[in-house]
Write a structure and sequence with these properties.
The structure holds two protein chains of two kinds.
Chain A (H helix, E strand, L loop, with lengths): L4 H20 L2 E2 L12 H8 L9 E7 L3 H13 L5 E3 L12 H5 L1 H4 L6 H14 L6 H9 L4 H8 L16 E7 L7 H18 L7 E4 L1 H35 L3 H24 L3 E2 H10 L5 H9 L5 H27 L4 H28 L4 H4 L17 H20 L18 H14 L6 E7 L2 H20 L5 E3 L8 H10 L3 H12 L10 H10 L16 H7 E4 L2 E9 L4 H9 L5 E5 H34 L2 H26 L4 H21 L6 H26 L4 H24 L4 H4 L1
Parallel strand pairs in A: 1-6
Antiparallel strand pairs in A: 2-4, 2-5, 3-4, 7-10, 7-11, 8-10, 9-10
Helix pairs in contact in A: 1-11, 2-25, 6-21, 7-22, 9-10, 10-12, 10-28, 11-13, 11-15, 12-15, 13-14, 13-28, 14-15, 14-25, 14-27, 17-26, 25-26, 26-27, 26-29, 27-29, 28-29
Chain B lengths: L4 H9 L13 H13 L3 E2 L2 E11 L7 E10 L4 E8 L3 E5 L3 E6 L2 E6 L4 H15 L2 H7 E8 L2 E8 L2 H4 L2 E9 L2 E9 L4 E7 L1 H5 L1
Chain lengths: 762, 203
């Protein structure tokens, strides 16, 4: 049997797409790509450092009801596994043996400790009283080489936690350990390995009750999200498919349409996915989960065909409805291209996936599906095909006005009741599917351990590394004044380990020469119990420090201190950015002012507010796009339809958007970006319904078929998105509920807005 | 840093031996006596206390340095504290998990977990409190000598981590009294702690 040319082309197209998928499809679960492109300095830091900020590699492990023995055993087991950078507890203090060689060698260039007679004398007196507590060879050699304990001070200043309490146990008896992962927070496969390793060690090796282990932290949340997306995507698509199948069987009482309806949809998904895989290096899990959902609109196209093919051949049915279907698809395409242009890579993926999908679904419905439909028109034809008079359908404005008024009123009432709560929600957290209680738990544990502030950092930019380091040093020094005013507790800078060359040279020049040091030391030793001979290493090391080549960033490669450097200093677009991590912030506004008044080109970056302004500007941008999209759609409609019908159609869509937003606001409190994306889909669907309902029908059968099709579409969409709205992922929930509500309103308006008793007017 | 503490901590445990009687011949019975005597020892606010004077000998020093202070044992938390009052106020408190140092430079908590040498000493301490010969013997080799009225219990660490640093711990007494504790380090440093039972002093 020879295949028709269009079916052959379709099969060839599928083959190409599958080939692309086999070679190009890679998945990622990095949430960062769902954030829009940064526009301000703060936003830049937010995006650049997402998952690399101070403390972001920390996984906080809470052990409920674990005694100190158990906690300690757990820490030991985690440490011995070697799977992590380090495991911190409330008693973690640097060990002498942990002092990295580079730090030991450069200790006199890393500290401002003065080696004059007075300070040396004080140090030596302190060491004399330490003798009551310390003994042994290691102490003697440390004392002999570093009587000021300079190396220990430097090391302790690098400690990433500044605990407020002696023990890390919450009021509810949860003991805390901090695991620092080897991989950055955004590397979710590495984070997943780490989370699983923790669980495996604690549950299988240490026999902890898995119920009593909680793991929080940036990476842990990412891993949970990945798992949730995967399981939700599977579960929801199965549920939605079953729902759709039921609706289709109910509508057509046959199996065949059910199978055929899948063809445009599956082709659309494969084509959309191939396009994304071809354009982007990785396809985000959310693109898949949301994209498959948004493509639910593609099921409408074959339904229109099936309904109309009840009374005529499939080929004549498609010829009959194609102009309307094409117009609807083109309008939806405009809206989806809007999503693609919204600025974040994740949403761009989503937009491209759905745009390509919509075009594919429409084309497949037009050219591939009709030849595949076996049933003859005569078989299905039923009696009563009276001809309608060729008069344009009469369109009612009253339901449109009613819906606008009802929607506006509802919005006003809800706004009043919610104490004028913001209609738009800019909180990034509302986009993140991590439950609120998990986030606040993470916050609680972080407070207990005194980890660096995840929300605020100071960023200092300069194209010249040495200039950036010098400014950082000045700020490091001046922050003491802010600290005295209670504005900040502690802070950490890159210059603790990598001072500017100026500072290194200054310290080097200040170091006494051999002869001078001997004289100073001899004086300083008077009144202390120590013998001069004990400090031979000290004298040698100070002398050697005078001629050390200056320390550079590269010297830290592969040392345990590299992470500290990388956390606090990075290069972006030929600019060096020095990050100062902050602990125990007081009055943020006052601190911001203090930095502003400081005269250094540094900025207190509030990552949360940066994310909020980012979302707000993003929304403004998207609203503009939406307005443009609406104008484009209006232009399209005016071109293809009589003016009255075009205006009425668009008015219907806008009134449904108003009423849907009001309902969602009433239910949800405020609208987020996902609601907005869903509203875009509602607009596309609504337009499809009103276009079909208001088209010029040839016969009563045609009219019956149109109603049948639109009802089938609306019911299937409501069912599919209703199921989605029940999801635990906030984003899916937002989208699902919005689309379900919007669809119900869409069909109501399309139904009541067209005069049903048109024949009588004729 | 903690490694220096081994020696000092070893001295602290000897607090337990204070009011002991060494009449019995076997190590077992001697330990039992230590243990029970400890529980009956002089208490202030529920804590056993004793004053000490310690002389520290080291190649670093021109002449020995002398410290004075109190050893305090709290049976409730099973913690021991060496509180030095002269020439400077510094202290060290040790319990099951951690060691807390307080000096003029601040307070520092150290975990015993990563410090096996210190941990061995704590285990020895517990063995002494509980009169557990097996546990004590698993950490130290003991040698008891008696000459005229004076007796000595010489403890030599078995664990490599501790024996690398500490040579021996000698407890010296007369009759039912512990007079002094001598700690010798591998590098030749040593310290002699003389105990001054407060009860006796007050009488």
């Amino acid at each position: 049997m020879r295949l028709p040319i269009n079916i052959s082309l379709w099969l060839l197209f599928l083959l190409v797409c599958v080939t692309i998928l086999v070679f190009n499809l890679r998945f990622s679960y990095d949430l960062g790509i769902f954030l829009p492109a940064p526009r301000t300095e703060s936003q830049k830091v937010l995006i650049e450092r997402l998952g690399e900020g101070p403390g972001s590699r920390f996984l906080l492990v809470g052990l409920t009801g674990a005694g100190s023995d158990q906690t300690e055993t757990a820490q030991q087991a985690l440490e011995e596994s070697g799977a992590f950078m380090r495991v911190l507890s409330s008693t973690s203090t640097p060990e002498l043996s942990d002092i990295p060689n580079i730090l030991w060698r450069y200790r006199y260039l890393l500290s401002d400790e003065s080696l004059d007679k007075k300070s040396l004398h004080e140090s030596l007196q302190q060491r004399a009283s330490d003798l009551a507590l310390f003994a042994g060879e290691e102490f003697n050699s440390l004392l002999g080489a570093d009587p000021g304990f300079t190396s220990i001070e430097i090391m302790e200043a690098l400690n990433p936690t500044k605990p407020v309490a002696d023990s890390w146990v919450t009021d509810q008896g949860t003991a805390l350990l901090i695991v620092e992962t080897r991989t950055p927070a955004f590397d979710l496969s590495g984070q997943k390995t780490a989370v699983e390793a923790i669980q495996n060690i604690l549950v299988n090796v240490q026999n902890f009750d898995p119920e009593k282990i909680e793991i929080t932290g940036v990476g842990a949340f990412g891993v949970e999200l990945q798992d949730v997306i995967q399981s939700e995507a599977t579960k929801r698509s199965v549920l939605a498919s079953v729902g759709l199948a039921l609706v289709l069987i109910l509508a057509y009482r046959r199996w065949r349409p059910l199978l055929l309806a899948g063809i445009p949809l599956l082709t659309a998904m494969i084509a959309g996915l191939s396009a994304v895989a071809l354009i982007f290096p990785q396809v985000h899990g959310i693109t898949l989960a949301f994209g498959f959902t948004l493509l639910g609109i593609a099921i409408d196209y074959p339904l229109h065909l099936f309904s109309h093919a009840r009374h005529q051949s499939s080929l004549s049915a498609i010829a009959n409805i194609w102009p309307t279907l094409r117009l609807g698809a083109a309008s939806t395409l405009i809206a989806y291209v809007g999503i693609a242009l919204s600025g974040a890579q994740g949403l761009a993926q989503l937009g491209i996936f759905t745009s390509v999908g919509i075009v594919t679904a429409a084309l497949v419905t037009r050219w591939v599906l009709p030849p595949m439909m076996k049933h003859k028109a005569a078989e299905l034809r039923f009696d009563g095909s009276s001809q309608l008079l060729g008069e344009a359908p009469s369109l009612r404005w009253s339901p449109v006005i009613l819906m606008v008024v009802a929607g506006g009123g509802l919005m006003l009432v809800a706004w009043q009741n919610a104490d004028n709560a913001a209609i738009w929600n800019n909180n990034l957290a509302s986009l993140s599917p991590v439950p609120e209680d998990r986030l606040s738990r993470d916050h609680e544990l972080r407070q207990l351990a005194g980890t660096p502030d995840l929300r605020h950092v100071i960023a200092l930019r300069n194209s010249d590394l040495q200039h950036a380091l010098r400014e950082t040093e000045k700020l490091d020094n001046d922050l003491r004044f802010a600290s005295a005013r209670g504005l900040v507790g502690h802070w950490q800078t890159v210059t603790r380990l990598l001072p500017s060359e100026t500072s290194q040279l200054r310290r080097q020049r200040k170091l006494p020469d051999e002869e001078h040091l001997l004289r100073v030391l001899t004086h300083a030793l008077s009144d202390t119990p120590f013998v001069l001979a004990a400090f031979k290493s000290f004298r040698n090391d100070v002398t050697a420090s005078r001629t050390l080549p200056l320390l550079t960033k590269e010297d830290f490669y592969d040392s345990p201190l590299q992470v500290y450097i990388d956390t606090h200093l990075y290069k972006h677009d030929s600019e060096w950015v020095s990050i100062i991590s902050l602990y125990g912030l007081g009055d943020i506004a006052a601190f911001k002012d203090w930095i502003g008044d400081h005269g250094i080109d540094a900025e207190l970056v509030d990552l949360k507010s940066a994310s909020e302004t980012l979302v707000a500007s993003y929304r403004g941008y998207t609203l503009k796009l939406l307005a443009i999209a609406l104008l484009a759609i209006l232009a399209l409609l005016l071109w293809r339809l009589p003016r009255r019908r075009a205006l009425w159609s668009l008015a219907c869509v806008l009134s449904v958007l108003t009423a849907t937003s009001a309902s969602v606001y009433l239910l949800n409190g405020s609208l987020n970006l996902y609601h907005m994306m869903a509203l875009l889909l509602v607009a596309g669907l609504g337009l499809d319904y009103v276009l079909f309902m208001s088209r010029d029908e040839k016969s009563v059968d045609d009219r019956l078929d149109t109603r049948h099709a639109v009802i089938a579409c609306a019911v299937s969409t409501t069912v599919a998105f209703g199921l989605l709205g029940l999801s635990a992922i906030p984003a899916l929930q937002s989208m699902g509920s919005t689309v379900a509500i919007g669809t119900v309103l869409n069909i109501s308006l399309a139904w009541f807005g067209v005069n049903r008793a048109r024949e009588s007017f004729a | 840093m903690s490694k220096f503490l081994c020696c000092a901590a070893a001295v602290v445990i000897s607090l337990l031996l204070l009011p002991s009687t060494w009449a019995a011949e076997t190590l077992t019975s001697r330990l039992k006596a230590v243990s029970s005597a400890l529980l009956n020892a002089e208490q202030i606010n529920g804590k056993h206390q004793i004053e000490f004077r310690e002389e520290r000998y080291s190649e670093l020093l021109i002449q020995p340095v002398t410290f004075e202070g109190k050893l305090i044992y709290d049976p409730e938390s099973r913690s021991i504290k060496k509180a030095v009052t002269h020439p400077n106020v510094v202290s060290m408190t040790m319990n099951d998990q951690a060691l807390v140092l307080e000096t003029s430079e601040g307070k520092r908590r150290l975990s015993l977990r990563t410090r096996p040498a210190l941990r061995a000493i704590m285990a020895g301490f517990r063995a002494l409190v509980e009169g557990d010969v097996d546990a004590l013997e698993s950490h130290f080799e003991s040698n008891y000598q008696q000459q005229a009225g004076e007796w000595r219990l010489v403890l030599t660490p078995r664990a490599n981590r501790l024996s690398k640093r500490m040579k021996s711990l000698t407890i010296i007494g007369q009759g039912s009294r512990v007079d002094s504790i001598v700690t010798r380090m591998k590098n030749g440093d040593h310290q002699i702690m003389t105990l001054i039972p407060m009860l006796a002093e007050r009488k």
